[in-house]
Design goal:
The complex is a heterodimer of chains A (263) and B (307). With 263 residues, chain A is mainly α. Chain A has a two-stranded antiparallel sheet with strand order 1-2. In chain A, a hairpin with a 2-residue loop joins strand 1 and strand 2. Chain A starts with 15 loop residues before the first helix and ends with a helix. Chain B is built from 11 helices and 13 strands. In chain B, helix 6 links the parallel strand 6 and strand 7. Classes of the chains: A mainly alpha (263), B alpha/beta (307).
Chain lengths: 263, 307
């Protein structure tokens, strides 16, 4: 018997693209349902927090408040779309629809299937950012052309959250227990990662924790550097952190899924 | 085995599958030849599905050797799976798609070019008589229709080996007969078929050769007719159980088996047995019927309920 370790590099073939393609086809088939949420989400955040709180806050560190939160809206959307796709979405396909079982009866391997799902989660993040960018641009709260780099960044950030999500999907005993990471990880992250107020307002210990452990912190920071724009050398540090964490979680996710599904 | 003999599609030697301490498949050996319909029979938990999953390259074996098309599933899963058609026990059609798109999407997993996949999907819908349901989503299909679509899906790649795990489970007689008829057609075209079932009639109809499994082991192997002849005999005489009959049969040294309130006598010549019964035992109800695979099955695997 072959032993699979959590850290072994999975063998993924180009067939992963077929799983990605399947999900893409389904997404565009129901495009009206899928394109609406990010559009509405952008408006809601801009009005409620931007215009609402923004009336009192005016500016942060010399930046208009709406411009300060615009990149956070993008980053949170990247996080949510990839995370929820690869938790609830993937779990439904795996457990209720038995789609993974059907797929691995073909030349696709389980590694291809999970890689395809993760790639799709990241693609969903990209699509959401593409939909939100024109809205934010219309309100004049982001700058071009640097903000266009939010698109490739959405893919990288999407991969990271898809990989993290897939780890939870691989170990969750039921669909209900997926609520734990959603409320204990995703919601706090959306609030405390330098999204709607600067990280520096937090006690110093929490700042370190946020920087060390909260993936969204790095994604928000990079997004902000692109949309303001205010690029500094720090961008490389954030990028390196994201790439490292993405690689770790994607590899572990595939190995965990293999352990769960191949018995 | 002569050099010119029909090639082996599956060769399994001492195949074993363990889940922790539980032995699901206990060192079984068998071969399936090209063009053959080979059956795995057995009660629930006999190890049939585990064996199917190992052959289908979705579950690694614990030990033993296995060759499918001459290749090892551990090393060449994709190459083997490219030539397999699988009907799983659990219907796992894609509910996000219509009937046609289920076949079309599945074709893509086999690298079948779109134009060929399109034509093939149309043909297969016709083959399983679902052409009118082409654009219907999966949830609107009946159980029988879903099962037929799963069969069609297993054929998108023109497989060299068809693996069917309980192909007609839970179907009404009409749907079951349609699937049998289609499988017969595929068999006539020279396809190799491996199937599991616990419908004995299904096995007797479809299989050229079969094995009966219990507790992970193969108990017997042979053609349905030979197994019946060898293990039960030609016919079964059933008599209502009375003290008189039991006593009388024992006296005449006729072997019998008591099942509930009937006495079964397996025999090569029912006329003689019936005559003896009427002459000496004053039986109440007597019924003579040909022996079936079911009799072999129950004889070998026991009558106790399997969980």
């Amino acid at each position: 018997m072959i032993m699979y370790h959590f850290w072994s590099i999975p063998r993924i073939t180009r067939r992963a693209g077929k799983v990605w393609h399947r999900n893409l086809v389904v997404f565009f088939r129901t495009w009206k349902v899928n394109f609406f949420p990010p559009l509405i989400e952008a408006f809601l955040y801009l009005f409620a927090i931007g215009m609402g709180i923004g009336t009192y806050v005016k500016e942060i560190d010399g930046i208009p408040y709406v411009n300060f939160i615009a990149p956070a809206i993008l980053a949170i959307s990247v996080m949510n779309s990839a995370f929820f796709e690869c938790t609830y979405g993937s779990y439904v396909r795996m457990y209720y629809q038995k789609s993974f079982d059907a797929m691995i009866a073909t030349p696709l391997s389980i590694e291809d299937v999970i890689a395809g799902e993760i790639l799709w989660g990241a693609t969903r993040s990209v699509l959401y950012v593409i939909i939100m960018l024109p809205v934010l641009a219309a309100f004049g709260v982001i700058s071009f052309p640097t903000s266009l780099l939010a698109i490739p960044l959405a893919f990288l950030g999407g991969l990271m959250f898809a990989g993290i999500a897939m780890c939870f999907t691989a170990i969750t005993p039921s669909i209900d227990t997926l609520n734990y990471p959603s409320f204990l990880l995703i919601t706090p992250m959306a609030l405390f990662s330098g999204t709607f107020f600067p990280l520096t307002l937090l006690p110093i210990l929490f700042q370190y924790i946020a920087l060390a452990l909260l993936p969204l912190t790095h994604l928000v920071a990079m997004m902000r550097m692109l949309t303001l724009p205010a690029l500094t050398g720090m961008v490389m540090l954030h990028l390196a952190w994201i790439i490292l964490v993405t690689a770790i979680f994607c590899i572990v996710a595939i190995n965990l899924m293999r352990r769960r599904l191949i018995v | 085995m002569g050099g010119e003999s029909i090639p082996d599609i599956i060769e399994a030697q001492d195949l074993e599958k363990k889940f922790g301490d539980i032995i699901a498949v206990d060192t079984i050996s068998f071969t399936v030849k090209k063009g053959e319909a080979f059956g795995f029979l057995g009660p629930n938990g006999a190890g049939k599905t585990s064996t199917m999953k190992i052959i289908a390259c979705v579950s690694p074996r614990t030990s033993g050797t296995l060759r499918v098309f001459g290749m090892d599933p551990d090393t060449y899963p994709a190459e083997i799976k490219l030539r397999l058609g699988v009907v799983p026990q659990e219907t796992n059609l894609d509910p996000d798609f219509t009937c046609f798109d289920n076949l079309f999407t599945y074709s893509r997993y086999f690298d079948i070019p779109p134009d060929i996949a399109h034509r093939r999907a149309e043909e297969l819908l016709e083959f399983v008589q679902l052409q009118e349901k082409k654009d219907v989503t999966i949830e609107k299909l009946s159980g029988g229709m879903k099962r037929r679509l799963v069969l069609a899906r297993a054929l998108v790649n023109n497989p060299d080996l068809l693996i069917l795990d309980e192909p007609t489970i839970g179907l009404d007689p009409q749907a079951r007969h349609l699937i049998w008829e289609r499988l017969k057609m595929l068999q006539a075209q020279g396809n190799t078929i491996v199937l599991t079932t616990h419908y004995l009639e299904e096995a007797a109809r479809l299989c050229d050769r079969l094995v009966i499994m219990d507790n992970g082991k193969i108990l017997v192997e042979g053609s349905p007719a030979d197994l019946v002849k060898q293990y039960v005999g030609k016919e079964i005489v059933e008599v209502e159980k009375t003290e008189e009959v039991l006593l009388c049969l024992s006296e005449k040294n006729i072997p019998f088996e008591v099942i509930g309130d009937t006495v079964q006598i397996a025999t090569g010549s029912s006329r003689e047995v019936v005559r003896t019964l009427f002459d000496h035992c004053s039986p109440k109800k007597v019924l003579t019927r040909p022996a079936t695979l079911e009799d072999v099955f129950l004889k070998l695997t026991g009558r106790k309920l399997k969980e």
